[in-house]
Amino acid sequence: MPYNGRTPTPSPIDASDIPAGSVDSSKILDGAVALSDISGEATVSLKSGRKNRIINGCMRVDQRNEGAAVVVTGGGYIVDRMVTNNTTNTGTYTVQQSSLGNAKSLRFTATAAVTDLTTTKTAYGLLHVIEDNNVADLNGKVITISAKVETNWAGNLPVSIINSDNTRSYVVNVAVVTGVNNIIVTLPLEASMVLTRSNSPGIGVVIGFNNEATFRTATTGSWVAGFFGCSTLSTQWAKTIGNFINVTELQLEEGDRATDFEYRPIGEELALCYRYFYKLPSAQYLYSPDEGIKHFHFPVTMRVSPTVALLTAPTGLVVNRTTPAFVTLVNATATGNVLYTASAEL
Amino acid sequence: MINTVKLQESGYLLNNNMSVPKADGNSEYEAIKLWLAEGNIPEPQYTQLQIDAVALAEEVQVSLSYLASTDHKFLVGYKAKEGEDLVAIEAARDVAREFIRNSGV
């Protein structure tokens, strides 16, 4: 019988030799494809284990404010692990846990226009600082930061990465349009980006920074000496009342491409947050001053001995001692509810 | 932001509502160390007024306890025990009442 098929292509066969849909699993014998047959490039997006170094990038955990709006006139944490700072004295923005699609998000809205961004006056937008311990292995490697950011303005959204001691910065402008934008920034970390493998601050990620002087650089897309949160071409979005950025699914991962956002179970995400901040979920009643010394154990060992604030306390009750594992309260002279927060933030 | 720093048994009381341990790496403690390095001096844990107020409250509590523990001696039908001087006790109760009245507590 004569051969009527296609003239065989000299080896190697390339993609043009294989019509679309002609190879399915029934054509591949078990064991026919070994790991060594697949190039690194082909598997680069197939990550195993935990990949997202950002804690609460899903913006779901909000122990401090429980979804309530916060008017930012100074600095402080908003949803867990996310911090902001407004040093302008001329305007405010309101930050609140919100939603974007099916996800929780963090929305920053300019509610009184910031008019003075001279010298070191800044409106931060979102800052997330990762502990050394969680990023020290990334020194000298390529990382990718991704997020979904909704805006009601078009322009250049600055994304900035800061090293451990705020002496090196990498600023990128991402062009955004009105609506939901997929932000992807890939960059090489420097060899000594994270100074130590410790419980100290490691990499800082800043999104939506506003400043028109000291902390603004003309250089984008490469490391520069100093602390910079935006560039000369960045949009100072907080200067216009009503402007907002709405951020969710913030991820920082190893590699040169953004993969799907890693959703962790809420219990796991909450436990990760507890290392840095813990608020007693409900008040505990001190039935008698005679209970004397009262130990409260934290659900997770905290990063360092935390700062404890008594939100509700019977007369006389004071903090006697804190460790990363527990706080000791003493000297109550009356009965009553006890409610406290413990902060070991970076 | 640091507004006030007071000494506490195991650290500092920051802005009157945060107990800060002397633990390196704690953000508030690191800020207080810088604040101290600038020559600032923390306030004592309690002011003299607070110390006096606590002492007064304790003395008032002693007087109240004395009155409570002797009330029954002046009920109808109470028989003084041998050697018990009810006149002297009543005089002491008057002093206690006067002290409580004047204390303002």
Describe this structure in words.
The complex is a heterodimer of chains A (346) and B (105). Chain A is mainly beta and 346 residues long. Chain A contains two helices and 22 strands. Chain A is globular. In chain A, 37% of the residues are buried. Chain B has 105 residues and is mainly α. Chain B has two domains: 5-37, no CATH class; 48-103. Helix content of chain B is 50%, strand content 11%.
- The total count of strands of chain B amounts to 3
SSE pattern of chain A, N- to C-terminal: HEEEEEEEEEEEEEEEHEEEEEEE
**Which blocks of ≥5 consecutive residues of chain B have pLDDT under 50?**
none
End-to-end Cα distance of chain B, whole Å, is 35 Å
* Global structural class of chain B: mainly alpha
User: Considering DSSP H and I runs of 4 or more, what fraction of the residues of chain B is helical?
Assistant: 40-55%
Mass-distribution shape of chain A: globular
**What is the overall silhouette of chain B?**
rod-shaped
Class by alpha and beta content of chain A: mainly beta
